[in-house]
Amino acid sequence: QVQLVESGGGLVQPGGSLRLSCAGSGLTFSSYTMGWFRQAPGMERAFVASMSVSGRYASYANSVKGRFTISRDNAKNTVYLQMNSLKPEDTAVYYCAADLARFDAIEARPYEYDYWGQGTQVTVSS
Fold it and tell me: How far is residue 24's CA from residue 26's CA, in Å, rounded to a whole number?
């Protein structure tokens, strides 16, 4: 069956960096648009970043633009989220998701995604 497994979360001080990874199995990874979402306590799940199947297109939430970078390695069935200049408000559970693509495009709508990982906690605190 399809599995998405996130890793790389943890506790980091404000201004620090983390790199999240999401490894996929049981799917043709290169056929899926990949996305990162996050959910803070008491909040709805929110879009963070998305990358098209080719890697040519990427999109970011305004709150992370210029600080976070999404990338993918289709040969390794893995998508990454490099997070720099982290702020306390970035604290959340981060989820990766896969959307079977019809086009080489990004997708920001969570309900369009077919598969989700279990999430990894990111805590930004001094």
Answer: 7
